[in-house]
Structure formats: structure tokens, C-alpha cells
Amino acid sequence: MLMVFWKTGTAHAASTVTELSSKIPGEHARRLAQALTRFCVQAWRTYTHPASAAEDQGENSEGWRRERHREAFAKATDAATKPNLPTDGGLLQSYNPVEEAAHQVGRALHAASDPGLTARVVAEVQEELAAVERAELGDLTGRSRQAVALTRAGASPAQVHAADTILSRNPLGSPALFTDVDPVAASIAAAHWLQAAADVTAEVSGLQPTQIVVEADNIEALAHITPTAVLEHLELGLTPYTAITGMIRDALIVAEGRIPDIDDLCERIDEAEQLADEHQDPRLREALRREIRTTPLDPMCPAQDLLEDLLDGIRGCWLLYQEDTEDDDAFVDAVRAEANASQDRLT
Fold this sequence. Notes:
The chain has helices at 26-48, 62-71, 73-81, 97-112, 115-136, 157-169, 176-179, 183-205, 212-216, 225-235, 240-255, 262-279, 282-291, 302-321, 328-341, and strands at 2-7, 12-18. It is mostly helical.
């Protein structure tokens, strides 16, 4: 039996593609499953790495290549049904990873030589592409829900609005942020609500908004580095969208084994060296070096990591607010009022 699995933010969902004939060798079945998995990875990469998120959009640029990858959706069905096959000892392969992955599915089907299987698998390919297309539009229902487990270098306005609505109901966060909406969109909305929480807490504590989460870390251990960095970006005038997608973009670059900002990294190394020289402590130098990171986020799942940290930051604001008042509703009401009053940050 050939089955498909996908993440949903909580558990995995599964569906049977087709029962396999006993005439199909196990090796052929495994090769087909591997080819379909590879195709899905390449198809969803066009969602996580859209052309619009690339810095360069010129001809032969990264943005140009990503657009060609996305356009290959239209060729996938033909490639799966009429793949390039070896001829005269050679094999024509496409430079386009989506198109080539579809050809690999087609070659696996050709080896299986089962017309019924081909028809069902091609329908499966079309269904997966349709799921990507729905996710691009902000519809994360059905198979498109697997987008909640991915990190996209951008966010749909519809998804940001959905996340904002969830936080409006509960400014301290909700599991629905991890299961019902895109995590980057949820992080953008959470940054907006973190700013509102920091502003109202600053009024009662006398601290600067950028000091709130660090101070709250003295009450309860919190992930304070990332929320503080986001608050600092917002204080400089960046919108939640720009601040969050910038951090996500850097983390995705790190995940590919590259350094997003070499000048910034060198500057932080120099600062660590200068501080160690001032204290003349070799152990401090080693400790400071270990703290230097190319991204504060987990490169394997940066959006989910960022969302968790931002919600931790909102909790930190609540903890510090409680120092002056024990009325939980007062904090929630004040944050909700502040977030609603500054709603233009999200547009």
C-alpha cells in the first residue's frame, strides 16, 4: 500500500494513495515513494521560498529562478506521465528541481509499468500541488494544513489577520497559533501584541519597553533575547512584518549553511574580543565566543521557535505587570486596548 503522511501542527495526518499490485517489486515501490517525497519537498519549497522574498528579482537572479521553479507546476503532470527516459546511454535532466522531481516520479512509474497506478499517482501529484496553491492564498485547510509546520519567507495578510484574531481573544497566546495558522504570520501578529504588552507594562513599571522582558527574566526564566531584539527593531520604526520576516530570512540563510550578515558577525566577534581584553580573562573570551550565533533562532524550525519566544515575551510582560497589580484581567484589558489602538502597525 502506498500512503502519504503530512504534519498538521499537532500530529501527522495520513491518506492512502493506492493499494499496490503484488506484481510490483518492493524496490520499485520504495523508489516511487522516495520520488514522490522528493517531489513534495521541492513543491513546498516554492511556498517557503517564494520569488517575492528574494532580494534580487533580475534576470537569472535568485528571484528569477524561484519564479521558474513555481511555473514548473504547470509541467508536473506531463513530466509524471511522459518522463524523460534514458536513451543511447544518456538521460536528459532538467535544471528546474520541481520539473526534474516530477520526471523522477514519472520514471519510477514507468519502471512499475502499471497504468492504473500511474493514474492514481498523477492524481496524487495534482492534489499536492493544489495544497501548495491553497496555502499560498492563506487557506490552510485539508492537506494545506502542513504549512503550519513550515517556515515561509513571507506571510499572507489573511493569515496575519487570523493570528491577530486569535491573540485578540487571548493576548497571552493559544495553541491555535501553532495548529491553525502559518507560524510566520502568527509571529508577526505576536510581535504586534508583544509591543502592546511591553508598552502597557512600561507605563506601570517605569522601565523602557525594551527592558521589560529582560527584567521579567529575573522573576521567571524566559527566552528574553529574541523578544528583546524584536522590541528593539520595532522601537527603531520597523513594522512587525519587516522585523519578523527579516529575522526569518536570516535564519533560512543559516539553515543553508551561509552567513546572513558577515559584517555584523565580525563586529560582534570584535566586541567580544575587546571585552575579554579589558578583563584579561581567557575564560571570558571563550565564554563570549560560544555565545556568538549567526541567528538567535533554531535554523531547523525558525518560525515555530520565534513564535514560542514571542509568546514567552508576552508572558514576561504579564509577570512584571503583576508586580504592581494582581488583577489578571487588568493586564489583558490594557494590552487588548493598546493593540487595538495601534492596529495600523499590522497593515
